[in-house]
Specification:
TIM Barrel, alpha/beta
C-alpha cells in the first residue's frame, strides 16, 4: 500500500495497513539539522519525509510581498512550492493550505483593527469574509488542477480556553463562509480539512456541520481530548495531529516517547479515521533525536 492509498483510506474511515503520518508544516532549519545538509530544496525535503515515513506533505502558500491595492493578492500570484514535483515525483498525499478570514483580517488590518471590525460587525468586515471566500475557492481550483489531492483551510478561531470571539458571531459570519468553501472543494472531488489551534470543543459540531472531512491540530495542551472527540465525532471527522510538540522539544527518553505515541495511537486509530502527527508541525527548536524516536515508534 502506498502513501496516497493509506491516507485516502484513513480519510474514508477505513483501516489502512498502518496509521498514516503527516505534519502541518516542516521548518527547513529542522530538515538541515536532521539531514546535516547546508541547503534545503525539494530533494532534501523529500528525503526527510522518506526517512520519517511520512505519508503527507502539506504545502503552505507563498504570497507576493505586497499588493498594489493593499488587499488580497491576485490568485494567479500565489504559489505552493514544488506542488507539481510533489505530485509527479513522490507518492505522498499532497495537501495545500489556504488561509482563512481571521488570518487575512489580522494580516491586512492588524489584530486590534480586525477584532474591532468584527465586534461592531462593520461592512468592511463582512466584505473581507466574502472576498477571502472567493479568493480561496479560486486558489483551490488552481491547486487541484495542478494535482493537489486535498485542501486544508487554516484559521485560528480559538485559543486555549475556547473560541476567540463570541461563538454566536462565529456561527453568524464565519461558519457559513467556511461551509461554502468546504462545499466548493468537495465539488472538486477532494477532501477538505480545517485547522485551528486552541480548544474547539464548543465548535466541533459546527465544524462537522460545515462539511469538513477532517480536523487538523487537536491541541492537547488546550484540553482537546482526542479520545472523547473520537467517540463523539470519529465517524464524521478524520482526526489529524494531537501529539504535543513539547514532546519533541523537551528532554525525553526513547521509552517515554514510545509510550506517548502508542497511547495516542491506541485511543485514536481504531476503526481508521486518524492521521498521526503533532498539533503544530515541525520546527527548528525540536530535538532531532526526539523526532527520530517518535517516528520510529509510530507504526
Amino acid at each position: 500500500m502506498n502513501a496516497r492509498e493509506r491516507v485516502a483510506l484513513a480519510i474514508g474511515h477505513r483501516v489502512p495497513d498502518r496509521v498514516p503520518r503527516g505534519e502541518l508544516c516542516i521548518d527547513d532549519a529542522l530538515v538541515q539539522a536532521f539531514l546535516r545538509c547546508d541547503a534545503v530544496g525539494f530533494v532534501e525535503r523529500w528525503e526527510f519525509a522518506r526517512r520519517l515515513g511520512l505519508d503527507i506533505i502539506c504545502l503552505s502558500p507563498v504570497y507576493p510581498l505586497e499588493t498594489t491595492s493593499g488587499g488580497l493578492p491576485a490568485a494567479a500570484e500565489v504559489a505552493w512550492p514544488d506542488l507539481e514535483r510533489w505530485v509527479r515525483e513522490s507518492d505522498l498525499f499532497v495537501f495545500v493550505m489556504l488561509d482563512g478570514a481571521f488570518g487575512w483580517g489580522a494580516r491586512l488590518c492588524g489584530y486590534e483593527g480586525f477584532f474591532r471590525a468584527v465586534a461592531r460587525e462593520l461592512p468592511e468586515f463582512t466584505d473581507l469574509i466574502r472576498a477571502v471566500e472567493r479568493f480561496n475557492l479560486e486558489l483551490a481550483q488552481r491547486a487541484v488542477e495542478a494535482g493537489a489531492m486535498g485542501v486544508l483551510i487554516a484559521d485560528d478561531i480559538a485559543y486555549r480556553r475556547g473560541p476567540v470571539i463570541n461563538p454566536a458571531v462565529l456561527r453568524r459570519y464565519f461558519m457559513p463562509t467556511l461551509a461554502r468553501q468546504a462545499a466548493g472543494v468537495a465539488d472538486l472531488g477532494k477532501p477538505v480539512f480545517f485547522h485551528s489551534d486552541g480548544n474547539l470543543d464548543e465548535l466541533l459540531a459546527d465544524i462537522v456541520k460545515a462539511g469538513f472531512h477532517g480536523l487538523q491540530c487537536l491541541e492537547a495542551a488546550a484540553g482537546m481530548d482526542i479520545g472523547q472527540i473520537k467517540r463523539q465525532y470519529g465517524d464524521l471527522l478524520c482526526l489529524w495531529g494531537n501529539l504535543d510538540p513539547e514532546e519533541l522539544i523537551l528532554p525525553r527518553s526513547r521509552s517515554e516517547l514510545r509510550n506517548e505515541v502508542q497511547a495516542l495511537i491506541d485511543v485514536a486509530s481504531p476503526g481508521g479515521g486518524f492521521i498521526f502527527g503533532t498539533s503544530s508541525g515541525l520546527f527548528k527548536e525540536m530535538r532531532v533525536e526526539n523526532l527520530q524516536a517518535v517516528y520510529d515508534s509510530c507504526c
